[in-house]
Amino acid sequence: MSYAAPKDLVGLAFGGDYNPEQWPEEVWHEDVALMREAGVNLVSLGIFSWARLEPREGVFDFGWLDRLMDLLHAGGIRVDLGTPTVVPPAWFYRAHPDALPVSREGVRYAFGSRGAICHSSPAYQEAAARVTRALGERYGQHPALAMWHVHNEYGVPVLECYCDTSAVAFRRWLAERHGTLEALNAAWGTSFWGQTYGDWEEITPPRATPTVCNPAQRLDFARFASDSALANFLRERELLRELSPGVPVTTNFMVSPTQCDTIDYWRWGREVDLVTNDHYLVAEESRNHVNLSMAADLSRAVGGGRPWLLLEHSTSAVNWQPRGIAKAPGEMIRNSLAHVARGSEGAMFFQWRASRFGAEKFHSAMVPHAGTDSRIWREVCELGAHLAALAPLRGTRTVADAAVVFDWQSWWAQRLEWRPSEDLDTRERAEAFYAALFDRHLTVDFLPPDAENLADHPLVVVPALYLATAEAGRNLARYVEGGGTLLVSYFSGIVDENDAVHPGPHPGALRDVLGLVVEEFQPLRATQRVRLAPAPGTAAAGQERPELVGDVWAETVLTAGAETVWRYADGPAAGGPAVTRHRHGAGTAWYLSTRLDAGQLDAVLAAAAADAGLAPRTTLPRDVEVVRREGDAGRFLFALNHTATDAKVPLPGAGTELLTGERAEGALAVPGGGVRVVHLDD
C-alpha cells in the first residue's frame, strides 16, 4: 500500500483541530495570522459542526464555512475537512430518539454529549449520508481541501448498542457470517446450558443476563459492533470519493490500548487512504514516553508500515485524565518528534485555541488561555520550525528490528468473564513486552497473527494470543521453520475464532511449534510469587542465567521436544519447566509460562534475541531512544533523550543534524530532554 499524503500539502503537517464556531468571526482573522506565525499548514475543520451546518432538517447554512475555507486558503493553510457525523443535532434526536444507543442493561443514553449513536439506525445512516453529500458537493473541489476527515474517534465513548434495531442488524450480520442456524449453534456451542436456537428471531444482542452470557455470542457482538461502525464509515467514504476524486479520506483512530479497545484496527486500517491517530500521553506514568512509542508503532502497523499522521495530541495538560498534569518544558516538542520518528508525517493537536466553555475548556491548546506571551506558544512556534526543517524525510519509512503480534479480537475474547484468573490482562502483557524491547533499544513492528511478512523480522514476540486460529498457528510455525525466532508468553493458542478450546492439550494452535504440552494451568494467589532457577548446562560458556521471580500465573508444562531453560524452583509447578526453547525446522521457538515484569523479561528476551542474531546495544543509555527512517530521500536517525542528562549516541557514519544545521560524525551529542535528527550522508 502506498502513502496517500494530504493533497497539495508541502512538507510535514503541522496544526490542529480548529473550532471557529466557538469564537466571534473577527477572531478568525487573528487566528490565521497566528497560524502563519507558528508555521501551521493544516487544520481539521467542521468535526462538531452539524448543528450549524444543518440547523433544520434538509436546510443548510454554508455561508460561514465558505468564508472560513476561503480565509484559510488565502492564508496558505490547507484543510482536513470533517464530516460532522459524530454529533447529530438536537433536532435529529427529537425526531429520532431511537437513534440514541442503548446500554447492555437496557438504559437509553441521552443527548448532551458526543458519539451517542446507534450505528444500526436507518435514520442516522440517512441523515449522515445527507450531510456528507452536501459537504462533498459544496467543497469537494475547493482549493483549500487537503483531505476528508470522516466522523471522529469511532468507538469513543460508546460503540455497542443493544436496542431492537441493533438486534435486527445483528441477526443479519450473523446470517452472513455463519450461513445457517445449525452452523451458528455449533460455533456458539449452544448445546451448553440449553441455549440452542431454532429461529433467527430468537437471537438478541448479549444483553444483561442473570449470570455469564455465552462468550461466543459476546465475541461475535463485539465484531458486529466494530463492523457496523465500519459500514457507516465506508458509506461516507464512497460518497466523498465520488464527489471529490483524488482527495484522501480518513478517520482518526485511537489505537493506543489505553484509549480505545472496541475497534478492530487491523480491519479498519485497510479501508482508510491515510492512517491517522489521536494519542494522549498518560501524564501520571513515570515513563509515559514508552506508551507513546508503542502507540506510534501500532499506528504505523495498522497502515501496513506506511507513513501515517498524528492527527491529535496535546500541547500540555489533558483535562479528562484524573489529574491534568502539565508537560514539562521541552516535553511537548520531544513527544511530537517521537511520533515523527516512528512514522508520523507531522504533528497535529487538539485543539488550536483553548475553549472558554464546554467539557474540554481545561484541555491545553496551541493558543492557551494565557495567550501568545506564554511558554506553550513559544514551544508551538519552535515545533513548527523543527517540522519545517524535517520536511526532507517525508515519505520515508521507520525501520524495525523486531515484531510483536497483537490482535484486538483475541483481546476481546480473553477479557470476557470466567477466565482462569482475573489477573490475565492482554494489554498489560503487551505493554510489558514492549517496554522490555524498548529498553533493549529495539524498534518494533506490530503484526496481526496471520501477517504474511513475519519472515521480515528476525525476532517475533507474542505477549498474549489467547485466541489463535488454526491458520494463525500454522503461520507462526512456518515462520519458525523458515529460520525465525519466536517468543510466546503464557495463555496463548488456547481457543479458536469462536472461543472454543482447540482439540487436544493446551496450547492448542501453538503446541507443535513450541514442542510442549501444558497439562494444567496454575493461577497464583494475589500475593504469591514463584522462583525460576536456570536449568544446568543451558547457558553459553562463560555466562550465567539469573534467577527470576514470577507472579499471577504458572503452568504444569511437559516438554515434547523442547529443552528446559528455566525451571520452577517452588510453587505449584515446582521442578517443572518454566521457560523452554524448541528447535523447529531452521528456527527456534521460546515459551514463557509465568508473568515476569518488564525488567525481568529482559533475561528471556536476551536469550531469544541472541538466537535471532540481534546484538545487545549496550552503548545506549536507558530512556535514550534511537530510531531510523529510510527511503528514497535518504537515511535519517532520530535520537530522543527522555532523561535530564546529556547523552552521546553513536552514529553509523556522518551527516547533517537537521534541527541545528551542524555536522555530526562518529557520535552525536543529545542534550538532556532534547532531540536530534541526523540526515546521514549517502
General description of the model:
With 682 residues, this protein is an alpha/beta fold. Among the domains are: 402-612, Rossmann fold, CATH 3.40.50; 624-680, Golgi alpha-mannosidase II (Immunoglobulin-like). The chain contains 17 helices and 26 strands. The strands form 4 sheets. It has a 9-stranded parallel β-sheet. Strands 12-11-13-14-21-20-19-16-17 form a 9-stranded mixed β-sheet, sandwiched between helices. Helix 11 runs parallel beside helix 12 (375-389) and helix 14 (426-439) crosses helix 17. The longest helix has 29 residues, at 215-243. The protein is globular and about 75 Å long. It starts with 12 loop residues before the first strand and ends with a strand.
Cα separation of the termini: 26 Å
Averaged pLDDT, please? 97
Helical content stands at 25-40%
**Count of individual helical segments:** 17
Strand count: 26
CATH class of the domain at 402-612 equals: Alpha Beta
Instruction: Note the main sheet.
Output: 9 strands, parallel
The CATH superfamily of the domain at 402-612 is identified as Class I glutamine amidotransferase (GATase) domain
Classify the secondary structure makeup into a structural class.
alpha/beta
Oligomer: single chain
Q: What value does the Rg take, in angstroms?
A: 26 Å
